[in-house]
Design goal:
Blueprint (H helix, E strand, L loop, with lengths): L2 H16 L12 H13 L1 H4 L8 H12 L3 H10 L10 H20 L12 H18 L6 E5 L5 E5 L4 E5 L2 H8 L8 E3 L2 H9 L5
Parallel strand pairs: 1-3
Antiparallel strand pairs: 1-2, 3-4
């Protein structure tokens, strides 16, 4: 088992407990919408394309809404079960590559959609995977940010993920940095840099 599988299992359990109508950090999505999104990614290649291609977003939304309307426990079981055996991410190594950030971020989307959330205790495997994913995703997700960005962990790991004359260093635990890179604001991070540059980073769009 890997981090992606662990996060899938934990998210599925949390979804079961939360029910279909709980808020998440994904704007406009309740828990049933988030669960349906995960099913679309792993079972409907025709609709999954619309996640990243705006011209196809309408089709994706219709398919996702139809999936979201099914009975809640059946929907959660589809998330827990994962893709069919012939789907590429049914292979463990590909699952880790494609789904670690996806399930880690969406698990936190549900956790942190509730009041009173706190970061989970450190976990070496999860933190190492989050740090790798944050550095990789930052190249794409921060491409429109108008300042340079350096990610730094309290343990001293450093990665310059975007160059620029005005540099801002974002410091936080690996999971916090991953969530920041994916555009989430419910994170525990700190910023170092000129006030104007920090302000531009905070107000800039992050994510695909």
């Amino acid at each position: 088992m890997g981090v992606a599988a662990d996060e899938r299992r934990a998210l599925s359990q949390l979804l079961t407990e939360a029910g279909p109508e709980e808020p998440t950090l994904c704007r406009g999505w309740l828990t049933r919408d988030l669960a349906a999104h995960l099913v679309v990614r792993e079972s409907r290649p025709d609709a999954a394309l619309g996640i990243v291609l705006p011209p196809l977003a309408g089709h994706t939304r219709r398919v996702q809404d139809a999936i979201a309307a099914q009975p809640w426990l059946r929907l959660v079981e589809r998330v827990r079960r994962g893709p069919a055996w012939y789907w590429p991410t049914a292979i463990g190594k590909l699952d880790e590559l494609a789904n670690t950030a996806e399930f880690l971020v969406h698990h936190e989307d549900v956790r942190r959609g509730r009041p009173g959330w706190q970061p989970r205790p450190a976990d070496p495997a999860r933190d190492a995977a989050a740090w790798r994913a944050a550095r990789t995703a930052a190249k794409l997700n921060l491409r429109r940010v108008p300042v340079g960005v350096t990610l730094r962990t309290p343990g001293g790991d450093v990665a310059v993920v975007r160059g620029g004359a005005a540099q801002v260093t974002v410091t936080g635990d690996p999971v916090e940095l991953l969530l920041f890179v994916f555009g989430r604001d419910a994170v525990h991070v700190s910023f170092e840099g000129g006030p104007a540059a920090v302000g531009r980073l905070k107000s800039a769009g992050r994510g695909i």
